[in-house]
Amino acid sequence: MFKPTYNRVVVKELPSDNLSEGGLVLPGETPFRLARVVAVGPGGTSMNGTVIPICCAVDDTIMYSAGSGANITIEKENYRLLLDHEVLIVLS
């Protein structure tokens, strides 16, 4: 498996009804995505060196803005790499 660094979160996007086959957001639909968290980093560091914990955990379902993060491929699987502050809501 893999582990992101610092305050990064790796997610696997869940299927959505508002995407075209090419992955474009269909007009009139929400610009948010649901995803399952597959890996989290150890957390960020404050100015005084205190570790700031990540807002979610592995296997949580989260919501994020469609334009957030970066697409990555690891071991032939597609994932999205987010910063923890790009997570809008932790659903479970």
Feature tags:
92 residues; mainly beta; 10 Kd Chaperonin, Protein Cpn10, Chain O; 6-stranded antiparallel sheet; two-stranded antiparallel sheet; globular
Shape verdict: globular
**Tally of separate domains:** 1
CATH class: Mainly Beta
Q: Into which percentage range does the β-strand content fall?
A: 35-45%
Helix content bin: under 10%
Number of helices: 0
What is the name of the CATH topology?
10 Kd Chaperonin, Protein Cpn10, Chain O
The CATH architecture category equals Roll
Number of strands: 8
Coarse structural class? mainly beta
Report the radius of gyration as a whole number of Å. Answer: 14 Å
Account of the protein in words:
With 92 residues, the chain is mainly beta. It has a single domain (8-90), classed as GroES chaperonin (10 Kd Chaperonin, Protein Cpn10, Chain O). It is 0% helix and 43% strand. The model has no long low-confidence stretch (mean pLDDT 88).
Provide a brief overview of the structure.
The protein is an all-beta fold. 0% of the residues lie in helices and 43% in strands. The strands form two sheets. The chain has a six-stranded antiparallel sheet with strand order 6-7-1-2-5-8, with no helix packed on it.
Write the layout of secondary structure elements.
Elements: E1 8-13, E2 32-40, E3 44-45, E4 51-52, E5 61-65, E6 70-74, E7 77-83, E8 87-90
Antiparallel strand pairs: 1-2, 1-7, 2-5, 3-4, 5-8, 6-7
